[in-house]
Automatic annotation (TrEMBL):
The gene is yhfP. The keyword Magnesium does not apply. Transmembrane segments: none annotated. This is Zinc-binding dehydrogenase. Its EC number is 1.6.5.-. It comes from Bordetella ansorpii. GO terms for molecular function: acryloyl-CoA reductase (NADPH) activity.
Length: 331
């Protein structure tokens, strides 16, 4: 099936030492990065990695021009794999899209069929994009935490960076599973939003200017952490015996200035969560997002924008001025 020319938001190399320049270009299919599967994009999510890429920070994108967007939902136009039929609804995230290959910020995306996951029944294209890499990260965190023995009757679960996209979905899922959630945020006006997602308590981050104690009062049965750095070390120090923490972000720094004492004396567990996981694990976890991990409050988390709003929305995300999940609607 031939497609007409279409719009895409592409990053172009800036002048030497300057950040990349993002603009909407009109493209044809043969200008997309290689792949055997063409998808008509319905929605694409905004992620912190996309915001970093637009600003030229962290050397996220190394070859230009590049269409951004590390996750997308849409329908198959054509595919080399006969199991993915035209019109089938799918989701794609990770595998280098938006970074090493063109991503979701376009009316069409071309990817490899090995990267494409058919949508589980009961998840719409809009909700698939609201979930996206963020929802999968939240679900994967809880999946492995429960694999390590976490249960609702063991006590509170702390969620840090609580107004972020992953954290908001995690709070929602935890609440549906019967956990008591304590949300930690530095945004003083966010408490009504977080309680509406299901948080039983909302607390500010601690003052860690004097450093992190090896052990603190045992409060948390689990921690879902998107911040890293000293805040993660503080959370580990406050885990109960046999507590478990899932770590997937480093907005607060990549160093971990803590102690081995919580691991030795309390037997706590620290899980690293890599959302760019193999497809068999995705096929196991995504159906849970349509079943026992299904969020109930995505409408509170989601904001849908149109393509012209995309550059400003990414800049706001980088400036920590966004809350929840923003998705851009392409069709």
């Amino acid at each position: 099936m031939a497609i007409s020319r279409f719009k895409a938001y592409r990053l172009h190399a800036g002048a030497e030492g300057a950040p990349p320049v993002g603009r909407f270009d009109t493209l044809s299919e043969d200008q997309l990065s290689p792949g055997d599967t063409l998808i008509k994009v319905a929605y694409a999510g905004l992620n912190y990695k996309d915001a970093l890429a637009q600003a030229g920070q962290g050397r996220i994108v190394r070859e230009y021009p590049r269409i951004g967007g590390i996750d997308l939902s849409g329908t198959i136009v054509h595919c080399a794999d006969p199991s993915l039929a035209p019109g089938q609804e799918v989701v794609v995230h990770g595998f280098g899209i938006g970074v090493d290959a063109d991503g979701g910020y376009a009316e069409y995306a071309r990817v490899r069929h090995e990267w494409v996951l058919p949508l589980p029944a009961g998840i719409s294209l809009r909700d698939a994009a609201v979930l996206g890499a963020a929802g999968y990260t939240a679900a994967l965190s809880l999946h492995w935490m429960e694999h390590c023995g976490l249960r609702p009757d063991q006590g509170e679960v702390l969620v840090t960076g609580a107004t972020g996209g992953v954290a908001g979905i995690a709070i929602d899922i935890l609440g549906q599973r019967g956990y008591s959630v304590c949300a930690m945020t530095g945004k003083g006006d966010a408490e009504p939003y977080l309680r509406a997602l299901g948080a039983a308590q909302v607390i500010p981050p601690p003052d860690l200017s004097a450093g992190v104690k090896p052990l603190a009062s045992a409060r948390w049965s689990g921690v879902i952490d998107s911040v890293g750095g000293a805040l993660l070390a503080h959370a580990l120090a406050g885990l109960k015996p046999d507590g478990v923490a899932a770590s997937f972000g480093n907005a607060g720094g990549s160093d971990l200035p803590g102690s081995v004492i919580p691991f030795i004396l309390r037997g706590v567990k620290l899980l690293g969560i890599n959302a760019n996981s193999p497809m068999p694990l995705r096929r196991e976890v995504w159906p849970r997002l349509a079943a026992d991990y299904r969020p109930a409050r995505l409408d509170r988390i989601a904001r849908v924008i149109d393509p012209p709003e995309l550059p400003q929305a990414l800049a706001a995300m980088l400036g920590r001025a966004s809350t929840g999940r923003t998705v851009v609607r392409f069709s």
